[in-house]
Amino acid sequence: MEYLNKTIKFALTLTLALAAFAADAVYANYEQVGDRGISVSGITACKHGGEYFGVDVWAPSKSLADLRKESNKSKYSDILIFREQYVTGESGEYSFKFAMKDNDKNGFYRVVINCACGDETEEEVFYCNPEDNKKALEELREKTSAKEVYDFCMRKDENGVENKYRLGFVYDFDFDLYAAEILFNYVKSSDFNAEDKSGAISAYKKSIILSQIHGGNISNIFDYADELGIHDTRIEKFVKDNAVTDKIKTNLTKRLSEKTVKSFGGFIDELYEQFVLASVQYSNGYSDIGDIVEEFKTEVGVSARPSDKACLAVMNKNYSDYGELYKVLKDADSDRSQTGGSSSGGSGGSGGGKGGSMGSNGFSQDYVTDNNKTKIDKNIFSDLESVPWATDAIVELAENGIINGKEPEKFYPNDTITREEAAKLLALAFLKDSPESEVEFDDVDNSAWYAAYIKICSGCGVFNGIGDNLFGTGMQISREDMAVIAYRTAVYCGLLAEDTENRGFKFGDDESIADYAKTAIYALENKKIINGVGNNMFAPKSNLTRAEAAKIIYELYTINK
Q: CA of 206: how far to CAs of 87, 182, 199, 530, in Å?
């Protein structure tokens, strides 16, 4: 009180511009802490760091005029609730707390922030008296339908204040009937406690977020991971292991938007199922699929971690439910047991003849059946302007789940690719059902995402190591080496006959081409699978780009179409 008396003169000099101040705020958040504390944070209008600023908190419907009229100084604190001075952070951010008194009523309290530079910001916070809050929650518990819950929350008192504020329900999104049904089921559950204000507020926020997801207004549920409690679920460990890609997050959110959820328990069930399915469709590799299916094996219906071959069989595919996924996993592992496993031999060299169950055009039928395609827009990637010659190839391969962008809507066509990435492309496009090699490279971790792809390519004899029992993981692949493994793959799958013909054509930099690569390069050039880089040059030692890799795979992929 003494502090207020000393500073009242300053308060009388304040200039209040109510509408203007609110528009100046960059952001502001507030939260009722405990029974009577209010925490406020935001950014000042001036956005200056190290700036002194004063805070004035005014009682509902009170202003400077009321302070001027009040002759009884003992009542000043009923008008000007709080006054203090602070210093802004580096970017003008602020954070402070103040406590309400026992007799302070429900209502909107006006917070005016005055910077030393002259800028002013005004915000509004709602204080919920704890006794009235408990009464409101008890009234909420008596409601018998979602419609009654909605009507009660939105009902206004004699002062025009909605009941949701008495309940402590303040959030950025609007409350609707969908959210009301979820909240109603929570209120009727054993989890609801009229004395647990924070629990009720959390349930209110979660209900609204689930409604927004269902309405398609949220693009990434992980933006609301705290509110939804995702960090407390079985998904969290995969988030920490970076197994949950941006594409998984986006697809998971889309999948959930298509489901109707009526309770928090129902949400968790849907969250797990759609997470598994999204992870299968957009995984970083077969190993992640194995880890995730193993975690949710009871839900999926399997008894143990699926084999690598089974993971490859489902990878990049779109399944609607656990049942569809289970069938493919079961069939793949059943086939594995009948054939003696996925490492049961294979070609020792570039060989002739097809490996695995290849279609008549040399591709796995899984990749050429229209029913298995997920149609995508040609504008799926926004960064293909520099590679018009490869755009169709990139889109077609993405459409068939053979190649992905490095991030949402970004392909990075001019980035180079590694040897293990090249192995993945070949395995997915042509060798998916082929046997794996029993050779163990010292630099290939069997738990790594690329291990199965390397084993398949090695088992087919199309992709060897670099010597000293090393595959060369992490190394960029050159244009001539890509030509070699593409040619071997084409011969192995029966797409091309082994070529020994000398046609007389040579690139201008033929002398730079390694002897082991010349047959492959000129055979593929003859079939227009590969081209030079201009001026009759091939640039054999240059590192292959993602766009070039896509073009080569695509030309082989469509050679007999």
A: 34, 9, 11, 54
Residue with tokens 């005004």: 122
Q: Is the pLDDT of residue 373 over 70?
A: no
CB atoms within 10 A of CB 518: 18
Side chain identity, residue 450: Y
Q: Are strands 107-115 and 52-58 parallel, antiparallel or unpaired?
A: antiparallel
Q: How far apart, in whole angstroms, are the C-alpha atoms of residue 271 and residue 387? A: 39
Could you tell me the CA-to-CA distances from 354 to 435, 457, 488 in Å, in that order?
Answer: 11, 13, 11
Q: How far apart are CA 175 and CA 169, in angstroms?
A: 9
What is the distance, to the nearest Å, from the Cα of residue 188 to the centroid of all Cα atoms in its chain? Answer: 33
pTM more than 0.85: no
- Checking if the pLDDT of 22 tops 80, the result is no
Q: How far apart are CA 391 and CA 402, in angstroms?
A: 15
**SS3 sequence, 138-149?**
HHHHCCCCHHHH
3-state secondary structure 180-225: HHHHHHHHCCCCCCCCCHHHHHHHHHHHHHHHHHHCCCCCCHHHHH
Local structure of 402: helix, strand or coil = coil
What confidence tens digit (pLDDT) does each residue in 240-285 have?
988 898 999 999 999 999 999 999 999 999 999 999 999 999 987 7
Q: How many residues does the chain have?
A: 561
Cα–Cα distance measured from residue 231 to residue 225, given in angstroms and rounded to the nearest whole number: 7
Cα–Cα distance measured from residue 295 to residue 304, given in angstroms and rounded to the nearest whole number: 9
Residue 114 · residue 21 · CB < 8 Å: no
Structure-token match 């030309």, residue found: 555
pLDDT in tens, 155-181: 987 777 788 888 888 777 889 999 999
Two structure tokens written together for 33: 């802490």
SS3 for 547?
helix
* DSSP strand pairing (93-99 vs 107-115): unpaired
Q: Which residue has the higher pLDDT, 345 or 429?
A: 429
Domains in the chain (CATH in brackets) are 2-127 (2.60.40.10), 130-217 (no CATH), 227-339 (no CATH), 365-557 (no CATH)
